[in-house]
Amino acid sequence: MMTKNIPSIGIVGATGFIGRELVANLFNYSRLNLAVRDKQKAEILFQDNINMIEITEVDITKKEDIVHFCENCHIIINCIGPSYRILDQIASVALEVGAHYIDPSGDETLYNLLVSHENQNTSAILAAGMLPGLSGLLPRDLAENFDEIDQIVGYSGGIDYFSPAGAEEFIISLSNGFGRGGACIRAGGIKSSPYSPFVSRELSGVPPFDAYPFISNELVHICKDLSIKHGDWFNIFFDKHVLDYISVIAMSNNKTELVPNEFVEGLIKANALDTVGRTPFQLLAIEMQGKQYGQSCIMSSIIHAGSGAKLSASVSASAALAICKDDVPIGIHYAANILSPQTTIKDIQQWIPDFKHITFNKNTVEEEGVL
């Protein structure tokens, strides 16, 4: 681990969508070491900041390359995806050599793999992205306004671009490894959703959309921690091409462990049709019902930004700053369980100019036009 006063943050996969945003967020806070496949291309990409960063060519299939890179960093942020292919390939090495670890993705499989690599000096923060991550911090922030919570409803989605890794990550997230499609939480348990697979729904200030019921592992943990008995979450879509292609994938009955390349290519093409001529954005919206000072209360919290990659990068960057400030205890954590929602949102606001966060009480404020 680095022992100098200024911590060194290593970003693996720095030339990807999320990696590039992380460099922009963090180069004023720390010495950055970027792990890339092609150093020459990376030097061109980061030429404006070349004097403030170090670029290292790393072959992630070679453990000795990963070890050498991690040994020279205080914190490792892994932006290489999809996460189900990488698993603990980088994370376990980082922890073994004494570096803290952050992953914008990461699920329960990675969590369980890393438990055996825990030591008394390092922390790991998983699921430090937009979803999961910010999607868990937002409910925890809103929950502080309640004495008791009866119900939570969440929405996530938007109009955005897919990288190949992002498209594959999205496809795999529809499987039961990350959550359950067509499910909800009732009486504290996971049940089949009463809503049809692609139900049309509306939110004030948001274009009409179709919603797919989906319960993530993150939401299950939140409902358990906050004693919420009734929960729904919807992935939202603003056009039909991606929705139609998801149906194609579902009907394919693919039995392979890896997502076929044709699925990734097909999803990217479908998404391109949905995004053409539109301004990209991402939306997270939470509604809670419960008791506040003994009275019935309904509150909503909405986040709107122009890029999912920027949101994910900002959550991971905020996690890195939290580690630098010694605000994160030793051990393996999920971002939604360990980061301060208020601090994370404040950090995001400084990095994303078009970021909007609105919280309002439906008992006292008109909902129309909140965005």
Automatic annotation (TrEMBL):
Question: This protein's superkingdom?
Answer: Bacteria
Q: For the Saccharopine dehydrogenase NADP binding domain, which residue ranges apply?
A: 9-111
For this protein, the record's Pfam families field holds: Sacchrp_dh_NADP
Q: Which PANTHER family match?
A: SACCHAROPINE DEHYDROGENASE
Name of the molecule in the record: NADP-dependent (Lys9)
Q: Which source organism does the UniProt entry give?
A: Commensalibacter communis
Source taxonomy lineage? Bacteria, Pseudomonadati, Pseudomonadota, Alphaproteobacteria, Acetobacterales
